[in-house]
Amino acid sequence: MKKQSYYNYLRICGLIATIMMSACGSYSLEEESEGATSSKGYQMSLNVRSNSGDTEQYYPLTVFLFNEEGELIERKELVDKEETFSKTLGKGNYTLTAFSGLSEEFFDIPETPQINDILHSQTKTKIETPLLSGQSKISLTENTQVNIALSYAVSALNFSLQSVPEDATGVEVQVTPISSGISFLGNYTNDNQSSTFSCTQIDKSWESGTFYVFPSESNRTNLSITIKRPGGNETYSYTYTDMLQPAQPYHFTGTYQEGVSMGSTFEIEGWKPSIGIDFNLNEEVSDENNNDDTDVDTETILRAPQLPVADKIWGYFYVWKVETISETEVIATLISPDQWRVLAADAPGIIEEYSIDHLDGWRMFTMDEAKEFKKQFASTLDELNYFLDDNGLDRFYRNDGERYLCEEATKTFSFNNNQILNAGKTVKYYLRGVKTVRVKLEE
Q1: How many Cα neighbours within 13 Å face the side chain of 234?
Q2: Beta-carbon neighbour count of residue 223 at 10 Å?
Q3: Angle at 62 between CA 59 and CA 65, to 5 degrees
Q4: What confidence tens digit (pLDDT) does each residue in 213-239 have?
Q5: Partner of 335 for a Cys bridge, out of 34, 318, 357, 412, CB 3.0 to 4.6 A?
Q6: CA 153 → CA 137, 186, 235, 264, distances in Å?
Q7: Would you state the pLDDT for residue 296?
Q8: CA nearest 397: which of 412, 382, 418?
């Protein structure tokens, strides 16, 4: 019996040793497995921001991830701010796009969209709920946090018609041109569509309520107002000598009789200040306001309720410097809120495709601008960075000798020294967007 017990003891000891060796072996394999996982790709994570700084009100969000061929990799609904989006991907080029308000109740959403597919409203051209969008193109070569700024992709329209004849039975307003949809890249169809809004009589005024449309590139917006009367319909035309802008509310106040005017406001929280347009239905509208000189080199001309000020935040952008043209017009140099760490060869493509708040046509610092910018902030870069951080913009780096691309990615500069060096082929540099715009006060 003692001999048998001894053998059992040895068997138990052997079994325990085997289990312990097995456990040690599995721990070793787990470490190798973790290393293998990290070598499979890089983590891409998403950070969403808005012009107002408060993104919570824009949830739920719909996020789409596309590969370089424009094929959908993943679609995800983020219900609230606590839910995040991240994905481990191989090295390559990707596009991440996010929408707020993209409900299947209001929009036709392809089941497996391609990046150039168009999102159409189910009511064709009239949109019931305001859509926000943001896009970012990523050249993934390391773990990357993608910052996407959401902005309204639609214009808000509101119509008030005064002194309409008492026997009127209905009023309709047709707006042309508008776009019928928007792509996942944030591009409008620009297909010269129109949308018709019905007005409701409220006391002595005919009101449309607020509707949303996708804007279209045009130097004018045409209104056609139809008043339905027992003796037949009467139609009047009005031309607003500018295109509709996204994220912009417009309040059109029309009068049937000459000399009648109405003052009112139309504000939407989180949008740009509204534009109020007064017009008479029964008099010709002068087109003299459409003679603005828009051939200003390659500058973009914007209209705004307030002119940008140097060393301040204007919308999503840091205003580096401002040249005053008149009391109502300036030329401003903007710095993009985003930056990238890239190879010089990849930089032109990235900056060419960059768009934020529907403002594209960005470029790099010229060599002279790089010298001027570096000289201006060499001793105060920390202060600038604190300011940029506080407003949700990427900071400029210099602690580890980082260099920034300039002169169309052929040269580089640093905040640590005065040297302008040729860009190397295998070294990664930081890329920051610069854009010159001409801004005129809204009339």
Answers
A1: 13
A2: 22
A3: 140
A4: 999 988 788 888 888 989 888 888 787
A5: 318
A6: 18, 8, 30, 25
A7: 33
A8: 382
Residue type, 424: G
Question: Going by C-beta distance under 8 Å and a sequence separation of 6 or more, which residues neighbour residue 321?
Answer: 310, 332, 333
User: Which token pair is 97?
Assistant: 């796009």
161-201: per-residue pLDDT in tens? 888 888 999 999 999 999 999 999 999 999 888 889 899 99
First to last CA, the chain: 108
Take residue 231 and report the two structure tokens written for it.
């003796």
User: How many CB atoms are closer than 10 A to CB 56?
Assistant: 9
**Residue keyed to tokens 């796009």:** 97
At residue 53's C-alpha, the angle toward residues 49 and 56, to 5°, is: 70
> What pLDDT was estimated at residue 278?
64
Backbone torsions φ then ψ of 326, nearest 5 degrees: -160, -175
Please tell me the predicted confidence (pLDDT) of residue 235: 81
Q: Which residues of the chain fall short of a pLDDT of 50?
A: 1-38, 258-265, 283-298
Q: Which residue has the tokens 């597919």?
A: 117
Q: What does DSSP say about strands 144-152 and 132-140: parallel, antiparallel, or unpaired? A: antiparallel
Q: How far is CA 156 from the centre of its chain?
A: 17
Q: How many CB atoms neighbour CB 330 within 10 A?
A: 21
User: Which residues, including other chains, have CB under 8 Å from residue 197's CB and lie 6 or more apart?
Assistant: 126, 157, 159, 172, 173, 174, 175, 208, 211
CA dist., res. 389 & res. 318, Å (int): 11
Question: SS3 sequence, the chain?
Answer: CHHHHHHHHHHHHHHHHHHHHHHHHHHHHHHHHHHHHHCCCEEEEEEEEECCCCCHHHCCEEEEEECCCCEEEEEEEECCCCCCCEEEECCEEEEEEEEECCCCCCEECCCCCECCCEEEECCECCECCCCEEEEEEEEECCCEEEEEEEEECCEEEEEEEECCCCCCCEEEEEEEEEECEEECCCCECCCCEEEEEEEEEECCEEEEEEEEEECCCCCCEEEEEEEECCCCCEEEEEEECCCCCCCCEEEEEEECCCCCCCCCCCCCCCCCCCEEEEEECCCCCCCHHHCCCCCCCCCEEEEECCCCCCCEEECCEEEEEEEEEECCEEEEEEEEEEEEEEEHHHHHHHHHHCCECCECCCECECHHHHHHHHHHHCCCHHHHHHHHHHCCCCCCCCCCCCCEEECCCCEEECCCCCCCEECCCCCEEEEEEEEEEEEEECC
| 165 and 227 Cβ atoms separated by less than 8 Å | yes
Closest CA to 64 of 128, 133, 149: 133
